[in-house]
Amino acid sequence: MTTTAPNTALPADAGDTQGTEQPAYAPEHKARLAFIQLHPDFYQAMVGLERANAKHLDPTLYELIKIRASQINHCAFCVDMHSKEALAAGETTQRIIQLSAWQEARHFYTERELAALALTEAVTVLTDGFVPDEVYAEAARHFDETELAHVIGAITTINAWNRIAVTTRMVPGHHKPRAAQR
């Protein structure tokens, strides 16, 4: 099992607290299982899927898809990771903040992005047991078949990652964007 030291300090982005009393944050939970270390073959296969999905998608759109699916699945680890990656790829803070309410904040997104977000929700939730024809048709109107296949692959892959992270209680807050690691 992976262990993480309790979070006794403010989150890194809590803002300027100089001269004010700092609130006591809840302790950081521990991960249940070090899945990636215990199943490296699966991890490498998933990384391969990520590389394959990213080939025909704009990096910011790719991250918006991942953030939205992660929000729906309540995956704090992935919301944290992909919000940071989106910012590093040039996405704006405001568009990331509005993503959880994108249907009411449509003016922040292009028609192409809206189609991808609607498809992300339909594939992620599947409450009616299928993806509605109108949602698929709208996505197909904005993406050629190769791009659409990559969007569907991205949605499917992030949903798999979400299920791993939520099940094993991966700890959010520690991810450093790839651009910052170079």
From TrEMBL:
Domain Carboxymuconolactone decarboxylase-like, chain residue ranges per copy: 40-121
Annotated region (Disordered), positions in chain: 1-22
InterPro entries registered for this protein in UniProt: AhpD-like, AhpD_core, CMD-like
Recorded GO MF terms: peroxiredoxin activity
A Pfam family recorded for this sequence: CMD
Protein name: 4-carboxymuconolactone decarboxylase domain protein
Species this chain originates from: Streptomyces laurentii
The organism's taxonomic lineage, starting at the top: Bacteria, Bacillati, Actinomycetota, Actinomycetes, Kitasatosporales
